[in-house]
Amino acid sequence: MFGIFTTVSETEARNFNPVTLAFVGDAVFTVYVREKLVVGHTYSTGTLQKLSAAEVSAHGQNTLLEKLLPLLTEDEVSVFKRGRNAKKPTRSKNATVSEYNNSTGFEALIGYLYLTGQYKRIEELLSNSDED
After folding, report:
1. d(Cα 114, Cα 125) in Å, to the nearest integer?
2. CB 3.0 to 4.6 Å from 118: which of 46, 61, 86, 113, for a disulfide?
3. Where residue 1 falls among pLDDT bands split at 50, 70, 90?
4. Active-site residue identified among 26, 75, 130, 132
């Protein structure tokens, strides 16, 4: 049976195509960013969209990834690299190839953590990145 917080084993998650993991990770990260922007702020919807787009973009994710890489475990780096190196069906129009590849790796990692139920780890990584 499927539910919103259905999890899979780490073995099952590793068997997913990394671009599929990135598909899930993109959605999870987008919700995180939007929720962060809405809670405690009174931005207009136009401002919310602009701020969200900047963070969720390949460039924004690549910048975030630079902060997170030193915090990742060996297994997390492995998932990231699989996503980064995966053959993608599309190319970014507004980012360098490197930024796009890194953002796909980042999204794959977030998707992997989400699907395996590692919500606290996602929170730990993303909330740590908010500290400047």
Report:
1. 12
2. 113
3. low
4. 26
Tokens representing residue 59 in the block: 């460039």
> Over 70: is that where the pLDDT of 67 sits?
yes
Task: Supply the mean pLDDT for the chain.
Answer: 92
The answer to whether 75 is a known catalytic residue is no
- Distance of alpha carbon 23 from alpha carbon 2, whole angstroms: 18
Cα dist from 125 to 45, 52, 64, 66, whole Å: 27, 18, 10, 12
CA dihedral 95, 98, 99, 103 (to 10 degrees): 130
Q: What percent of the chain has pLDDT over 70?
A: 95
